[in-house]
Every structure is written in structure tokens, then in C-alpha cells.
Amino acid sequence: MRLHRIHVENFRSIHERTLTLPDCGLVIAEGLNEVGKTSMIEALDLLLDPKLKATSRAGRVAQTQPYGTDLPVVVEAEMTVGGVRLIHSKQFLHQPQARLEFVSGRRAGEVLTGEEATDAMAEIWRGTDDTLWQALRLMQAGSLEALSLRSSTALTAALDRAIHDQAVRDQGGEGDDVAAPDSASGNGAERDGAGLLAAVRHEYEQYWTPTGKPGKVLKEAAAKTERLTAELQQATARLAEVDTVVSDLEESQENLEDQQKSLAALKVSAARDAAALADLEDLEHAVTEATRAEQDARHLRDAAVDELKDRRAAVAELADARDAEEDARAAARTALEAVEAVESQFTEADQAWREADSARRKAKEAWDAARRRASELRDQARLERLNQTITTITALQAEIAEAENRIDTNPATAAGIKAARAAEQKLTAARIRLETASPRMTLSRLAEDAPELRVDGEPISGEGDDESRVVDRRTVVEVAEAWRITVVPAADVDDLAHQVEAAERDLAALLDPMRVATVEEARDLLSRRRREEDALMALRQRVARELEDAGAEAEGAGGTGSGGGAGSSVEAGNGAEAGSGAGSVSLADLIAVRDRITASSALVRETTTEVTMTNTETDAAPGMTDGSEALQGADQSTETPEQADQRADLLESAHEDADLAETTARSARDTVQERRSTAREAASAASSTLTSSHDQVHRLQDRLETAREQTSDQALEDAARAAEEQHKDATSRVAAASRELESHSPDQVREAAQASARRLARAGERLVASRGRHAELTGQLRGLDREGRQDRFDELSGLAHRSGIESAALTRRADAARLLHDTLIRHRDEEHRRYLEPFTREVERLGRGVFGRDMAVRVDDSLTVTKRLLNGAWLDWDQLSTGAKEQLGLVVRLATAQLVDPKDGVPVILDDALVYSDRVRTSRVLKEVATGSRNHQVIVLTSAPERYDGLDATRIPFQ
User: Fold this and answer.
1) Sheet of strand 873-876: strand arrangement
2) How far apart are CA 525 and CA 771, in angstroms?
């Protein structure tokens, strides 16, 4: 696994932060406490937890949201897992969402969202060694317990490869030639040694419990020895406390004397360096003064040289000006002669162009008149068609208005019919329920002379069959004037009757607006309305077709009038009308187009008459044809548009000939005119140049004479040579002073003076501290009873020695039994523990670079470091100091990272690690960290970046 980028928003104190990581190497992420370094890793854990969905509101998610806000917590990471690069993100709490994008691999470019993204990422994460991911990190508030790496699949695979490689090296063959060990042979050895193991176990159990702990005999001996040892250690410690104070006091006295001597020597050195600095400052002042004098001399020399150069330039400039004056006078005479020669040529060419231009204008007017006549004839044809279309559309619009009026007066609607049908069905259902629930009353005439019978005041004839009635409301039956019988139905029948009445009112309320009595009549009325609407639609479509055809005709009106003047305005107006498009033409638009065509035709007729009268009164230039003969010879009363177009084409040809003749004449005149203008400009320029040259000669001559009156040329030469000599002398003095200054090594003198001052200040501070420490140790020594502590130590030493001899004998026998027992067990389990060797070797290799060459460790079957050997003493993990646990834990993590294949590994993450380590151990550990990061990712989060200043690392500051 490789981490490439982590992006977090609104996570505790982090507003927004992105951490970009290289594929391998050491990364130092530095920042103050509470800036959010640990929060970046916690956010990554939330993102990679396969059980935690974006919709989760668990406590560990809710507590990450900034207090008092409703902001979404966003975590995104770009990583490579199993050779596939992907980007995974989750947004918690506010508008939760999840996203997974595959950047590489066979699914590159695929994007998943929601639970699909979460499930896919969980499936990918199952292929990652989660034990390794949790183990290869040392967090700020993490436990310092020994790591258990037994369940790490990546580490187990790496150890298997290491065992296989070692077997190849031991046998001197290729990997394929080395066979796996035969487990059957080991089982046979166990059966053969079962009896021996039982006997050894019996002896072993006299001294040790089944769990390997000391038995009663050993415990009692150990307790006695331990008690005496503890008392002896206590006495030793009390005596060592006195020795320590004495040793510290002697060392403090020596340090105090050394510091006093050093301070005296530093004062002498500082005084010597200060004197050298004062001498140096005097030399620097001398160099500064010499440099200032050299600059003044250089300025004087430059001024004298510049003045001499100006005088020489003025003499040369006067000579050049006199030569230029003579050249300008000759050029002016030549230019004046050229102007006189070209003036007569221009007069002839201008007369020829004026005659050709008059003929061109007359030909243009005749052509424009013919075009306007052709346009007028086309407009008349269009006008007739437009009038016919307007008449047709007007009639259709009248029919549409009548149809719309009939539809507006028809109140039937589909929604009303639907509601009426529903109300009718409701009424029918209510009547059925009422009739079903109501009692029935049957009236039968029993005798011909039966008395008169009335029901609700209406007489009953009694003729014919029996009469049956539904009693759905209170009914009164009267027999003659002798009896009145009142029949009252049950309460539920009365309610049903009210429902029938309400349904009848609802139906009437829906039918009355349509002015019908039944639903069938309403349906007929709706059918008539729909037929009227269909007819109206057909009329509107016909109007649309007429308008569409008329719109195309209106577009054609854009071609009326092709000449200038009034014809141009007509063309523009019609073109704008047509430009609106046939789909948006209305009757008013057609009428407007018709009116414009009518006005345009009248204007064209007036213009054509005026042009004809004008051409009749004027003649064309001799030899020129202006086309007026074609315009005057046409019979315009019977002329068709096609004939008018043909005549316009003839006049257009005549106009083109006249235009070509005018262009040729104008070109000839322009050529001559250009030559005349050029000649005039040349003459004027030559005259101006001559005047300017003459003035320049007099001005330069006056200025030179004035300057020589003030200072002669020879005086300027002498002044320049004197200034040059003075500058050379000043330059030599600066060089000599600079050499003298450089010979004293100014930078070294200053650095030496500053360093002496700093050393003197620090030595004074150390001396004050040493004096305070010496006084403190003197007071401690006075309060200790050295003789009493020595007597107690001697007594306990004798007792402990005798107890040690007795306990050693018992322990040797017990250890022998245990050694034999453990040896047999070890041989039995040796094949099961072989894979521990490469892991132990790598841990010891790295650990010796930190703890020393004699360091060793013991690793149990769960790949957990249980003991460490240093300086000949084995210590259990729990017996190690906090700093040693921290250092050894980091060594185990680095060893694991080195063993695991980089493509199966995970980044090593250290969060403010080594806080319990001394300077020497820290330096050694950091060296191993830097070495281990060459092929792996090692990410260090720290608030003390100065610890890592000597390492080659990528540094990322956290603000």
C-alpha cells in the first residue's frame, strides 16, 4: 500500500488541509501542538474503516465536527492498494456521501458513489494486511506494549521467503532444488522420545509448575534470596547515594576550576580579538578615504576629457555643415527645373479625366433609371398577388372569429363532463344503497267500496295491481278521515336519504353551468364543441399556409429597386420586412408591405421621368456612349419586367465601358499629379534643407568662436593631461590601502571577535550554574550518614553471600532439570519456530545500531519481542524503561517494514515519537529511520522538527 495524498476539511481544528506524499522516503510533517497532525491520521482511519459508512453519526464521527457548526466533515485519500491507484472520499454528518474513483488498473476511469463505493472499498481493503497497518505506527497517545505480528499475512509471507532463501544458501543449490521438510520424520522422533520426556518432566515438576513458573521450593529459596538482595540493594543504593554525591561534588569542583581557567583565557582572547578588530576598522576607514579621493579625481578627469571631446566635435561638425550647405544648394536648383517640366503634363491629363467622368455619370444615371423601371414592373405584379392574398386572409379571419364565438358560448368542457360523470355514479350508488336499506310499503285494495286512501297528501286510486313504495323518509298514510298512519324509517335510512339529496345537488351544480339537465346532453354539447374546435384549427392552418406563402412573396419584395436615391430606400425597407422570416408574417405585415411597394413604385416612376428629362436636355461627351438612347427608345407603357431587365443589362454594359474610360483617364491624371506633387515636395524640401544648412553653418561658427574666446584648444589639451595624472595617483593609493586591508583577513577578524564575545558570555553563564551546583552538592553531603550506611551494607553482604550459595545449588539442579525439559520441548517445536529466525535477525540487526553490538532479543511464537539482552543482562519487555520500549518498538516496526515486500507493505507512521529517548539513542534511531525509508514510506508527525535536521527528508510544514 502506498499513500499519495490525504485531504481533510472541517475535522476538529482543521479547516482544510492537503498532505501530499512521495512514493517512498522519509516525510517530516512538522507543526506546533494542536495544529492537527494526529487528526490527519485519525481522519484517515475513519475513511478506511470498512464498517463506517458516510451516513454514520457515531460518537467518534460526531466529535470530529467543529464545535457549534453544521459543516460537513470531509476526508479524501489517494492511494495505491494491490497495484491499483484509486481516490476514496467520505463526507460525514452534513449531506453525507461516499465516492471511489479508480485511477489505474483494469477499472481505470470508473467512479462509484454511495454505498456501492463504500462496499467496493471494503472489498479492496480486505486484501490489505490490517494487522500490519495497525502495527506499523507509533502514535502520540499509543500504548508501549510489545507488538504481536502473528496475524500479519504480509510478514508471514516475507519470513517464509527468507527461510526458503536461507535454505537455498545453506545447500548451495537453486530454489527449485530445495524440498520442504518432511513432517513425518519429526513425529517419529517424538514417539521415540516420549518416555524420556516423561521422566524429565517428573524431575522438572519438583521445581517448576506446569506453566513454567518456580515451585514452592524455588519460591522459598528465591524469596529469601530476593529479600536479602532487596535489602542489600537498598543498602547499596543508600551507600551509592553518598558515593554519588561525593563523586558529583568532586566532579563539580574540577568543572568549577576548569571553567574559571577557561573564562580567564577567554577574556585574554576576547581582548586580543577586540584590538585586532579596532585595527581593522582603522584600515577600513583609510580605504574609504582613499576611495573617495579616487572618485573625486576620476570625476575631474572625466569632466576635462568630455570638454576636450566637445571642442573637437564642434570643429568637425562645422566642417560637415559647410559641405552639407554646398550639396543642398545644388539639389535645390535641380528640383526647381523638374517642377517646371511636369506642370504642363498635368494640365492636359486633368482635362481628359473631366470629360470621361461626365460621360460615366450620365451612363450611370441611365442604368439606374432602367433598373428602377424593372423593379417597378415586378412590384406591380407582387402588389396584385398581395391584394388577392389579403382579401382571402380577411375572409378566413372572419370565419375564425365566428367559430371562436361559437366555442366561447359552448360551456361544455372535458373536465366538467368527467366531474359530472363521477357525480352521476356517486348519485346512482347512493340511490342503490338507499333503496337496499329502506323498507317497502305495498298498498292493496281489498274492496271496491274501500274508503279514500292518501299517502303524503296524494290520493291513491287503488285501481289495477298493488302499488309498492320505498319508504326512505317519513311517510304519512291517511284512511278517509278516520286514520293517520305515520311510517318513520330507521336513522341510517334517513342518513342515506340525505346522501342521495346531497349527490343530486352536486350533480345539478355541475350540469347547471352547462345549461343541460343530464350527463348525456352534456356529452352531446362537448362533442359539438370539439367539432367546432377542429373546424377552427383547420381555418387557422389555412390562414397559416396563406401567410407562409405570402411571407415568401414578401421576401421577394426585398429585390425592388436596384439603383440609387429613392430606389435604395425601397430596397432597404423591403429587405427588412423579408428578413423577419415567413414564419412570423402577419396580415398587418402584408398590408404594410403592400403600402411600401405602392409608395416605392410611385417614387421610382417619378425618378425615372426626371432622369429621362435630364438625359434629353444634356449630351454626352464627344466619342462617349452613355446609354440614354436605349432608355428613350423604349415603350414603357407596354414593357414587361423581362424586357425592362434586358434594357437594364444593355445600359449596364454601356456604364461599364464609360466607367473603364473614366478609370483610365483618372489613373493617367493621378500618375501625372503624383509626379507633380513629388517634384514640388522635392523642390520644397531642397529649399528648406538649403536654408537649414546655411543657418546651421552660421550657428556652429558663432558657438565655436565664443568657446575659443573663453578657453583655447591648447588649454583644454593641457587640462585633460593633468587630470589624468591626478587620477592615476589616486588609484594607486586606493590599491595600496586595499592590499593592506586584505592582508589582515577582515572577515576572519570580525568572526573571531564575535565568536570570542559569544564564548565569553556562555562561559560566564556556565560558571554561575556550576557554582550553584557545587553549593547544592555540599549541602547534600552534610545531611548523609556515611559510616552508618557502610556498616549496614557490610552486614547484608555477608548474609546475601551465604544465601546465594545455598540458592545457587538448588537453582543449578532446578535449571538442569528445566534445561533438559526445555531442550526436549525445543527440539519438538523447532520446526514450528524456524520462521522466527529471519525476523529475529532483522530486529537484532537494526537494534544493534541503536543499543550496541551485544544487543539481542527473544521472540515468541506470536512474533512478539518478549526479552532484550544488553550488557550481558536479559530483561523482559515489561522491565524495560519507557524510553527503551519506545526505541525497541520503533526498531521492530522498521524491521517489519524492511522484511515485507514493498508492494505488500504499508507506511510507517510515527506521531511525536522518541519523546522518552535520550540524545544519543535518538540520533541512532533516526539514522535507522532514514536508512529504512529508502524503499518504504516513513511518515513522521512532530512538533520538534530540529531532531530531524540531519536527515534527508521531505518537509511539510503544518500551519
Assistant:
1) 856-859, 865-870, 873-876
2) 122
